[in-house]
Amino acid sequence: MKYLIAILVVGLAFTGNAGAQSQAKTMHDTYCIMCHGTELYTRESRIARDYESLREQVARWQANAALNWSSTEIDIMTNWLAERYYGLSCPEQC
Ligand code: HEC
Question: Is the CB of 46 under 6 A from ligand 1?
Answer without folding.
Answer: yes
